Amino acid sequence: KQEVTQIPAALSVPEGENLVLNCSFTDSAIYNLQWFRQDPGKGLTSLLLIQSSQREQTSGRLNASLDKSSGRSTLYIAASQPGDSATYLCAATSGSRLTFGEGTQLTVNP
Amino acid sequence: GAGVSQTPSNKVTEKGKYVELRCDPISGHTALYWYRQSLGQGPEFLIYFQGTGAADDSGLPNDRFFAVRPEGSVSTLKIQRTERGDSAVYLCASSSQPPRLAGMTDTQYFGPGTRLTVL
Fold this sequence. Notes:
The complex is a heterodimer. By secondary structure, chain A is mainly beta. Chain A contains no helices and 11 strands. In chain A, strand 6 and strand 7 form a beta hairpin. Chain A starts with a strand and ends with a strand. Chain B is an all-beta fold. In chain B, about 0% of the residues lie in helices and about 45% in strands. Chain B has strands at about 5, 10-15, 20-25, 30-35, 45-50, 55, 65-70, 75-80, 90-95, 110, 115-119. Chain B is globular, with a radius of gyration of 14 Å. Chain B starts with a strand and ends with a strand. The model of chain B has no long low-confidence stretch (mean pLDDT about 90). Chains A and B meet through strand 4, strand 5, strand 9 and strand 10 of A and strand 5 and strand 10 of B.
């Protein structure tokens, strides 16, 4: 059974700081690894999807990496802004389902 | 075009009652997923539809939970004899392609969810 863990559970940083969110998964037989953003009371917004054959994906200030052999992914956020404050979830796709971590709650202080 | 929509946005019911939660996927998406998210947790998989059929229902917690997608578009999640432990946000997602070989999968687009509260 796939298990996904995210560290840290919560993170508070000053505006402008670069930061890294960590995700680990136990079963390396994944189709892809996705990072989502969730704002309070809202659904999930897909940020980046890394196919199992890829090592990283970039979108604007976001960069996600994937190391299947070690069961790890990281989300790097450059020059953080208060608008980046949200919960960030990673999810591993195996078979027909996404298995989510519990999320990292990020607060970027002005 | 419109994203995934879910109705109602909030549902309060009493223990023992029956509830139905509706999901309208993105037009043309053949794959539809239901997840449940408890407070402070990540979403947990419930069921996956490919077209009209439930291709994987192994995440349904027990036989009080049932879902249908009769015409391959709108889906309804049905919960009988609700219990307080069923209180959660129920999320629906759709994608244009079913899960396939590694390296050939599509992202899932999520709706805003239905917050179910069982008193």
